[in-house]
Amino acid sequence: MDDRKLKVLYVCNDDTVLGGASLSLGNLLQSLAGAVDPVILLRSHGLVEDWFAERGYETLVIPFFRATFHGSGFSCALRYIPHYLSWTRTRRSCIREVMRRLSGKRVDLVHSNSGAVDIGFDLARALGVPHVWHHREYLGLGIRTRLFPSRKRWIGRIRSTEANIAITPGVARYLQIDSLPGTFCIPDAVRPANDTVFVREKEPFFLFIAGKIYPGKHPETALEAFAQSQLASEGYRMRMVGSLTPGYRAELDSLSRRLGISQSVDFIPFVDDVKASFAQATAFLMCSEFEGMGRVTIEAMFYGCPVIARNSGGSADILESRRTGFLFDSIGECAAYMRRVAGALPEEMILAAQREAVSRYSEENYGEKILQVYHKVLKEWK
After folding, report:
1. Which helix (H) or strand (E) holds 156?
2. Which of the four CATH numbers 3.30.980.10, 3.40.50.2000, 3.55.40.20, 3.40.30.10 does domain 205-361 have?
3. Which of 19, 227, 306, 335 has its CA 20 to 30 A from that of 134?
4. Which positions ≥6 away from 348 have C-beta within 8 Å?
5. According to the model, what pLDDT value does residue 211 have?
6. In sequence order, what DSSP letters do the residues of 29-40 get, joined into one string?
7. Which 3 state secondary structure label does DSSP give 237?
8. How many distinct helices (H) and strands (E) make up the chain?
């Protein structure tokens, strides 16, 4: 390889909600500054486009569908053919428009930023360049999500792509690519190594954060554990931070009233800068059952916030129970850990978690690992 910047087309899953995948892509691009000239393909205009544009990145906004289909089996069956026709037309149109917009420009490779989008595979073939596929999710687990048009087709594309990157060993095992040639397990970078803080005087609130709060994130677990802990009677609050639909907000409000904690629960719109919230919180609750990695878990570790997480998915890969965090298997166990951290700050655990976060999830070494993948596939492609 020569010393010129690589031109990489990134395919981004998010659009109107700034989720963990987009934020992680931002960390990736920051890590690769000086080595890569990126252009980011987005499905629609909105918050994510604005976020990347504010940071000086070139974006292409051209509609395409995700490789997922939501709903019950009956609902999906009824909608399959109409959705397939729209999916096919939109995909062909997107590929044509990308090719037109990039005509005359060199592109070295295509990097799909999520397992939930597979159009990057087609774009790489149309452009005659290799494809790198970043897998961040346990797709098909925990929520009613089906792979579209079929799981068989999706798996076939994974096995035909030039490189697959799994963000945790658990994701690689779930996708059955852990022993596949061209698979790399590279944890996401989350923060620069020096971006840490540890506030010892915590405020009396627990934190639940998600870019989008929906049933798959299990916010009801946080509310039920908070109620069982009985800490509301001692002045503690439960802060739910993230965007959510009015209908789902009403469901969670109703649950809070039934649990008798509605006066101690705050719903706060999602904000990009969560440093102060993590630094001041008594603890952070990660309740997702099948979280791919848990970016917010690692942010909490950077910012000196004890983590109480469900013992599954990425949380089980990231945390060592009672050394760098608390892993729970039941709502009652979660409530007990909440009372424990409210009673005494686990300072040794917080510092161990912070050291782990800096060592494994900082930006400084991340870019070099990604570049090694790029250089390998480009060398083999030639």
Report:
1. helix 151-160
2. 3.40.50.2000
3. 306
4. none
5. 84
6. HHHTTTTEEEEE
7. strand
8. 14, 15
Other C-beta atoms closer than 10 Å to the C-beta of 382 total 6
Q: CA separation (Å) from 202 to 126, 226, 268, 324?
A: 54, 17, 19, 18
Q: Do 6-189+363-381 and 205-361 share a fold?
A: yes
* Residues 163-192: tens digit of each pLDDT: 999 998 889 998 889 989 899 999 998 889
Listing DSSP states for 292-353 in one string gives SS-HHHHHHHHTT--EEEESSHHHHHH--BTTTBEEESSHHHHHHHHHHHHHS--HHHHHHH
Q: What angle do CA 286, 288, 291 make, to 5 degrees?
A: 100
CB 138 within 8 A of CB 167: no
| 28 close to 191: Cβ distance less than 8 angstroms | no
What is the pLDDT, as a whole number, of residue 13?
86
Q: In the CATH scheme, what is the code of domain 6-189+363-381?
A: 3.40.50.2000
Query: Residue 215 carries which DSSP code?
Result: G
Spell out the domain ranges in the chain: 6-189+363-381, 205-361
* Residue 323 CB partners (closer than 8 Å, separation 6+): 349, 352
Q: Sheet of 6-11: strands edge to edge?
A: 58-61, 36-42, 6-11, 109-112, 131-135, 163-166, 183-185
Low-confidence ranges of the chain (pLDDT < 50): 1
pLDDT confidence of residue 365: 82
Q: HSE of 142 in the Cβ direction (CA atoms, 13 Å)?
A: 16
